[in-house]
Amino acid sequence: MDNEVPESPTPPQPAGSPLERLKAGLLASPAETVAFSLRGAVVLFTVVALVFATSSFGSTAYYQALFCFGLASIVRLYQRCGAPKFSSDYLRNVLVEDSAHYVLYSLVFFGGAPSPAVLLSPSIYAFFAACTFFRKSIAPAISPRLEGAVKKIESSASKGFTYASNIEIGVFFLLLFRLITGPGFHELVILYMYIQFCMLRTTSRRNAYPRAAWAAVRANIERIVNSPRCPGIVRTLYQRVLQGIAAYSEQRQAPEHQQ
Q1: Any idea what DSSP says for residue 13?
Q2: Which of 149, 132, 152, 144 minimizes the C-alpha distance to 18?
Q3: What's residue 249's pLDDT?
Q4: Dihedral sign for Cα atoms in the order 213, 98, 124, 46
Q5: What residues contact residue 74 under an 8 Å CB cut-off, 6+ apart?
């Protein structure tokens, strides 16, 4: 599930009844139609999970949303990279695709306790991707006015993707808080896997919003750390954390340069 719109042009609408035109639009790209259905399910289940967050019904909807989101991401990844191949080039291409990142995202949280905040970012991406497909393949068969209305919604996609990236950062701090207040092996594993997800997001081929969001966070932290009021021990700890991250990044990149 990524934030880029489908690259295929709007399918031509043949003459005939609205039902025939709708059928032609849906059959023009079966994979996109399947992805559209899954994304619609993600949005629906997310709403249910948020409304009924304290009940078992909401918990079920939470896992259903993650499951549909993961499937939609797999469909999109197949569209982007094709069938899996045992090659380093294929792996490199996969690792910079948003859809691959969100397959990992779904797996990370599918095994944990329900947390509705986790669904906010996926539902935003699913919503705007579904809007794009609806405008290109469904709205023309129903009404030109409907197509124009959906276009207006899509015009706010940039703000939506920015919110989604900020939410993903918020989820990181939420997981960190959980680990501090209730340390456990399960919380540590989830946080570690989520850190891998966040690092992958900053390498996205098509989505610059995560990089911009993390850059803004770092700028704000450095402004606070470099303030004269900031204790020296905090500044030293922050610098050591940055050094550790830099060293870890160099270790990850070394095998790629050797190939």
Answers
A1: -
A2: 144
A3: 56
A4: negative
A5: 99, 103
